[in-house]
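Cross-check.
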Amino acid sequence: MTISPVGASLRIVAIALIAVSAQARVLPQFNALDNARPAGEALQAARSGAVAETHTEERIGLANFVSFRPTTASTAESLMSMAAGPEAAARRHLKSVANLYRASASDIDAAVLHHIEPLYNGAQLVKFTAAVEGVEIFRETATVLMDSNMHPLAINGYLGATPAGGSSNASLVASA
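Predicted model, tokenized:
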């Protein structure tokens, strides 16, 4: 059996690709939740009057589901929310309960907009993710559900479990 020059070339390229792909760089292993501090009683004390119910992530003591009471916002407030757009309204709602996530306003501002999904009835889903030096943090996403007037209905997920500034994790990413 003879091998054509093209067949031989393809085998050589395949062997070279296998050898190159086997030399992937090793990334450091870390978990953003390793350094998180449970909130415990602080979570109970942090609930605002607008919040109807919260569910918490037991390992870190952060809210991972927040439902809001029906709002009695004025027409002017509704118009301002609608004019600002869904992203700005969602950030404002996240900031109103940032204490449930042990997050600051700057943490909420730093969250990366993942996507906005308009729903059939005029409601909006706005999803944010957290990132350290451009690397998305696994498990740190928050989705804000708002009605057609941009009033909050619920928040699913959380932002802010990563240590402030992401210093310990950022140094690991930088060293990779």
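The first strand starts at residue 51 and ends at 57. DSSP finds six helices and six strands in the chain. Passed to J.P. for a second look.
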